[in-house]
User: What shape does this take?
Amino acid sequence: MNTPNSSRFTIIAALFLSLFALAVSSASAQQVHELYYNNSFWADSNLKGATTESGSGLGAVMTPGNGLHSFYLAHNGDVHQLYNVGGGWTDQDLTRITRGAAANAISNVAAVAVQNEQYVFYISDIFDPHLLFYNNSTWTDTNLQNYALPQSDGQEVAAYATPNNGIHMFYVTPGPRVIQGYNVGNGWEYQDMTRFGAAQPEGTSLTAFSVGNLQYCFYVAFGGYIHELFYNNSTWTDTNLTALTRTVPSWESPDGSVSGMIVPGTKKLLVYYIGNNT
Assistant: This one.
């Protein structure tokens, strides 16, 4: 027979368990957020997409007419797009639409827009580099190993476009080696950047961008050294920036991350990394 005290305890315990389940559910329900600056203040918006992989990479582009597109990995490995072309945010499961391959759980996602055409690169769950392509009408999925591009280590991806609609993507093989895949109108080809003197990579990310036909790729090499791969519209060269600047190295795998940019209207380059100051 239940006493008043035991009934009260049962109710309190049930309430506690309900709150705990809600807290766990909320903590595990990661979603993509947008932090937006309107030239006056910052605001946050939950874009209400699918539940993401906790290690999901993110890619984002803007298309003509201020169309906003963000790409990420859902918890089931599908690649999703959140887009806003003026009517609010909508979520699409691009893997389901294209019947493409699931992504590796820790794959980065790199996106490039050329007018209304969109290119989204990721690494599949069997470590093949993949391209999701939007031709301004439909999405398709392509396994770039069909063009003999080497298998990936499962994580790093960066991409950019050059004049005349050249598309370039960089990733890392299990070797490890830095690979450039590119399509300048003749189908997909690739270059093993170690053939140009590039050091072996180590870390969790690389970054790449172009200014006209000048091309840059930055990554963390063994020993934590930050390296720059630079294409001067004729040849590729590799520079150990850590040795050149006599600075501290980066943390290596699994913590070595790097990002870079060029200051608009100048020739100034900025590279950011986590220094090993211990």
About this structure: The chain has three helices and 20 strands. The longest helix spans residues 4-28.
